[in-house]
Amino acid sequence: MIAEPLGPSDPLERSAGSQDLPAAVLWDMDGTLVDTEPYWIECEYEIVESFGGTWSDEHAHALVGNELLVSAAYLQEVGGVPLPPEEIVELLLDGVIERVRRHVPWRPGVESLLDRLNAASVPCALVTMSYRRLAQAVVELLPTGRFAAVVTGDEVDNGKPHPEPYLTAAALLGAEPAQCVAIEDSPTGVASAEAAGVPVLAVRNMVAIPPAPGRTLIDDLRGLTPYDLLRLTR
């Protein structure tokens, strides 16, 4: 069921310095901010089939949240795509960016929560294993200033589930990881945030996230205010 809002009726009722607000919110992108996972899967099928290989939803779901080079190596080995992983990544990105520019599938409640966080002066970072050119294409479709930092898979040494992406994002915003909240939709992303010491709000989507102590799972972000985030994760 959808989590009920826990904060005050007016999301700007208290100051941004309130202890009820997170120091920052760190957002995953694919499947969390935007429902692009179907786009990735469409592109995977297209690429594999263009080289005479076969693909399946089971294979596609195994790649959700992974580093793109890891996913590309999987397409090369399992899907029989006879290209270097770097070229496979670029083909995937081309296909997904083309689809995003035609239609941005925002996840339920995302735009409202981003607006409320901006109004409450809570900084946000995008923490994605997609590459900078796709992340930038998505961010540019939002009002200016919604994301104060963007961390992408082509700009870190270690991708999710390693903690580096979330530690980097928190550092860029000058925030302590434990005082932030991460919003994720995949086991790989949840593991990355938890390894970095960031409380996680896990939004159910394409791949099941197992329950665990201290882990909060919700159906979507509709109705949430900035004041709900810490209460839901602690």
Chain-averaged pLDDT:
89
Give the strand tally: 6
- CATH homologous superfamily title of the largest domain: HAD superfamily/HAD-like
CATH class term of the largest domain: Alpha Beta
In terms of DSSP E residues, the strand content is 5-15%
Q: Return the domain count.
A: 2
- Indicate the CATH topology of the largest domain: Rossmann fold
Order of strands across the main sheet: 3-2-1-4-5-6
The appropriate CATH architecture of the largest domain is: 3-Layer(aba) Sandwich
Distance between the termini: 19 Å
- The amount of helix comes to 25-40%
Main beta sheet:
6 strands, parallel
> Uncertain runs with pLDDT below 50, 5 residues or more?
1-17
Q: Given the structure, what is the number of helices?
A: 9
Report Rg.
17 Å
- Sequence of secondary-structure elements: EHHHHHEHEHEHEEH
Could you characterize the architecture of this molecule?
Residues 1-17 have low confidence and may be disordered. This protein has 2 domains: 25-35 and 107-233, Rossmann fold, CATH 3.40.50; 37-102, DNA polymerase, domain 1 (Orthogonal Bundle). The protein has helices at 37-50, 57-62, 68-78, 85-102, 110-119, 132-139, 164-172, 187-195, 226-233, and strands at 25-27, 124-127, 149-151, 181-184, 200-203, 216-218. The two termini are 19 Å apart. With 234 residues, the protein is α/β, with parallel strands linked by helices. It is built from 9 helices and 6 strands, in the order E-H-H-H-H-H-E-H-E-H-E-H-E-E-H. The chain has a 6-stranded parallel beta sheet, sandwiched between helices. Helix 1 (37-50) packs across helix 4 (85-102).
